[in-house]
Amino acid sequence: MAIPIILDCDPGHDDALAIMLAAADPRLDLLAITTVAGNTTLDKATLNARRVCTIAGISGVPVAAGCDAPLAGELRIADDIHGASGLDGPEFGEPAVPLAGEHAVALTRRLLLDHPEPVTLVPTGPLTNIATLLRDHPEVAPRIREIVLMGGSTGRGNITPYGEFNIFVDPEAADLVLRSGLPVTVVGLNVTHQALVTPEVVTRFRALDTPLAEACVQLMTFFASTYDRVFGLPGPPLHDPIAVARVAEPALVRCVPAPVAIELTGVHTRGATVVDLHHRTGTPDNALVATGLDVAPFWDLVVGAVAALPGAAG
């Protein structure tokens, strides 16, 4: 039986591929796509989610807009990486996929309470929506199978020396989620940087020879140009689909149990994920932490998803 999931995202180039994988993999039942401010503003992220669903031929999945700012402080976006639209590269027409008529948190609550089995939440942006849900609606906790998030790192950051972007944008939300007592898996930069979009990967997309694949080529080419300019990397890491892959095929993403805390007050380290891999603090484990990725099968999964979607036929 397919695993019911809700994808909470902030598209974002890597979120776009996460949406495609979540919709295409037959082992997953994508109940909804919810959006949050992060890589770009909420309005743009929501428009981008609808654009991705339109070009990929994803229908029947509600798209709902959520929180437009973090729980505390000002929103910081990543337009230096994702461009002014949050999804620069292809030319998009008007989306054919409508916006759901309820807030993302309300939609998520309703789906959790109505679904016959517990649902997996897959947040690939700041955790504002998820934290708001858990804070305001504690009754849903038993209806959550697990939370598999993209965020954090066992080492260095990418927005500050020790802060990964998703956690840094809303560390208070991340702190609430990590202290929730729910099963949480953290897929961080230490693993996502194992999945670089190399020229060989782009060639695989291009070889599909479909309009959707060409859009992916344009997305990844723009993404590569900003990562080269900002970080000097030979290819951009495809962060977010790895969280989706962990749910669809857990063996692809190797994890270990560990205590994870969020730094909230450090002058230089606010937003850091403090991962006690060696259990030196005596703190109980509260998460599974991703440590490795089977890279070749992961790319087979992502390229196969783009090939399988209805939009791939034109």
TrEMBL record:
GO molecular function list: hydrolase activity
User: Which keywords fit this entry according to its UniProt record?
Assistant: Glycosidase, Hydrolase
Gene3D superfamilies given for it? Ribonucleoside hydrolase-like
SUPFAM superfamilies noted in UniProt: Nucleoside hydrolase
The Inosine/uridine-preferring nucleoside hydrolase domain extends over: 5-300
Please indicate if the UniProt record lists Transport as a keyword: no
Recorded hits in InterPro entries, A to Z, give: Inosine/uridine_hydrolase_dom (IPR001910), IUNH (IPR023186), Ribo_hydro-like (IPR036452)
What PANTHER family would the database entry show? INOSINE-URIDINE PREFERRING NUCLEOSIDE HYDROLASE, URIDINE NUCLEOSIDASE
Query: What is the protein's name according to its record?
Result: Nucleoside hydrolase
